[in-house]
Amino acid sequence: MALMITDECINCDVCEPECPNEAIFMGPEIYQIDPDKCTECVGHFDAPQCQQVCPVACIPNDPQRVESHTQLMQKYLRLTQAA
């Protein structure tokens, strides 16, 4: 699954620089995650870095974007080959 940021976000700015895919960006009110770029850090780290640093635990899995580990790895490969 891709991750999402809920409205509990306090805009503390710690998640954005941790994302290796540059999937996190400032939205109209809170940070958001581009699901087309989010690999849950598969290919980069063992755990999603944004979740690791979030002080309010507002970054759950997005139930609208169910993806397997294999699909996340394929997305990672596409993103890194395009770079």
Descriptive report:
By secondary structure, the chain is α+β, with helices and mostly antiparallel strands. It has a single domain, classed as Alpha-Beta Plaits (2-Layer Sandwich), CATH 3.30.70. It contains two helices and two strands, in the order E-E-H-H. Strand 1 and strand 2 form a beta hairpin. The protein is globular and about 30 Å long. It comes from Imbroritus primus. This is YfhL family 4Fe-4S dicluster ferredoxin.
What can be said about this structure in brief?
The protein has helices at residues 49-53, 69-82; strands spanning 24-26, 31-33. It is an alpha+beta fold and 83 residues long.
In percent, how helical is the residue content? 10-25%
Secondary-structure-derived class:
alpha+beta
Query: What is the CATH C-level name?
Result: Alpha Beta
Give, in spatial order, the strands making up the sheet with the most strands.
Answer: 1-2
Number of helices: 2
Count of DSSP strands: 2
| Strand percent estimate | 5-15%
Count of the separate structural domains:
1
What is the CA–CA distance across the termini?
22 Å
> Shape, please?
globular
CATH architecture: 2-Layer Sandwich
Provide the CATH topology. Answer: Alpha-Beta Plaits
Mean of all residue-level pLDDT scores = 95
